[in-house]
Specification:
Length: about 400
């Protein structure tokens, strides 16, 4: 019987892990299934660009995994039962259950409205492709109306800053306001904060600092200080949340729902489960939890692959780098900020800004898409076989 590897989620982390495992493990004794709710690979780092009007490539997963022998199941994960080692899914045919021997949990995160009244009903987000496309349609209608439309972006994290600057640059006929709970760019160095402010001024973005949003209505945003901001399109980017599926299934999770893992991305409560990307509460080389980011997805995905490879083939497990060295922010197409951070996650004085930072970010985006959508590149001539028959006894011995 083949060893069944099931990967939940085909974002940056999940697609990379599935493709790499398929490239390195022999299909003679392993079977890899990827479960994803949509048929396309979503470039989540570029969804704010999609919303603003850019054409963003979305390769079909069937094409991405073509030639890998990966089984693609287009379905929504509803239950993870680590005691029975099964996953329940729902699809157009009614769904069913998938058994696994090794589970890679990469379901990622989604936008979090923090239960602010009206945010779910009236605000847009850029956490998923359908949501970004809905925002794009609204912005298109505002542009067709002849200009003067008002866009309010709530949240001054990386996503909020990138969304506000991209919309302001791509659609100069719209008025863009960025609402920041604290100081704009508070996590950046003094020089980078100045660069960010100049970019907002150049793009005509109104910045409201030290402002909390209490409610969102169809045509305005209500702030805690009594200010009412007129808005034709409110974009909510004030944080991300995770699905409760892992917690409901009995996996050991943090308060926000991330699966607690060891240094090899293995669940501390269920050794058959690995968590990667936003789904994992992983401690980096600096002793601090890795942030939810594309960079973390890459690091955790690589470590999980090495751990799974080592345990299944009886080889020594390689510890890959788990680093958090910088924040990279796009400020439209021709500007950006690359902010270096220290081991405590604090901004270093040094930063790179302007076109150079924008080119580096564009290169990262291009490389991430290429690496994910070419899983068969560099296929080894001799794929690794499992150390022994993939039964429970073997799994325990390799733990």
């Amino acid at each position: 019987m083949k060893h069944r590897i099931v990967v939940l989620g085909a974002g940056y982390a999940g697609a990379y892990a599935a493709g790499t495992l398929a490239r390195r493990l022999s299909p003679a004794d392993t079977e890899i299934t990827v479960v994803n709710a949509v048929p396309d690979f979503v470039q989540r780092m570029r969804l704010h660009q999609l919303a603003a009007g850019r054409d963003i490539e979305a390769p079909e997963l069937a094409d991405v995994f073509s030639g890998t022998e990966i089984r693609l199941r287009l379905a929504r994960v509803t239950v993870v039962d680590p005691e029975r080692r099964v996953v329940a899914v729902a699809d157009a045919d009614g769904g069913g259950e998938l058994g696994y021997d090794t589970l890679v949990y990469a379901l990622g995160s989604h936008g979090d409205d923090h239960a602010v009244p009206g945010a779910a009903e009236h605000a847009f987000d850029v956490a998923a492709r359908p949501a970004a496309l809905r925002l794009r349609e609204r912005l298109d209608r505002l542009d067709r109306r002849g200009g003067g439309g008002r866009v309010v972006v709530v949240g001054d994290g990386l996503t909020g800053i990138e969304t506000a600057t991209e919309i302001a640059e791509s659609r100069p006929g719209l008025s863009v306001t960025l609402v920041a709970r604290g100081e704009l760019g508070a996590r950046l160095s003094t020089g980078a904060r100045g660069h960010l402010r100049r970019a907002c001024d150049r793009l005509g973005i109104t910045v409201m600092e030290h402002t909390s949003v209490e409610a969102v209505e169809a045509a305005r945003v209500l702030c805690a200080d009594g200010t009412a901001l007129a808005s034709d399109a409110t974009v909510w980017t004030a944080g991300f949340a995770l699905s409760p599926i892992a917690a409901i299934g009995g996996l050991h999770v943090t308060g926000n729902g991330q699966i607690v893992v060891d240094r090899t991305m293995r669940s501390v409560s269920h050794p058959d489960v690995y968590a990667i990307g936003d789904s994992a509460h992983a401690i980096g080389d600096n002793g601090r939890p890795l942030p939810m980011s594309c960079a973390s997805a890459g690091y955790t995905g690589r470590q999980a692959v090495e751990a799974i490879m080592g345990r299944l083939t009886g080889r020594e497990i390689t510890h890959t780098k788990l680093a958090y060295a910088y924040n990279h922010i796009s400020l439209g197409r021709r500007d950006g900020i690359l902010q270096m951070v220290d081991d405590e996650g604090r901004a270093k004085p040094k930063y790179v800004g302007g076109r150079k930072a924008a080119r580096v970010k564009a290169g990262i985006l291009t490389m991430s898409l290429w690496a994910t959508s070419h899983p068969t590149f560099g296929v080894p001539r001799h794929k690794r076989r499992l150390a022994a028959a993939p039964d429970a006894t073997t799994e325990k011995a390799l733990a």
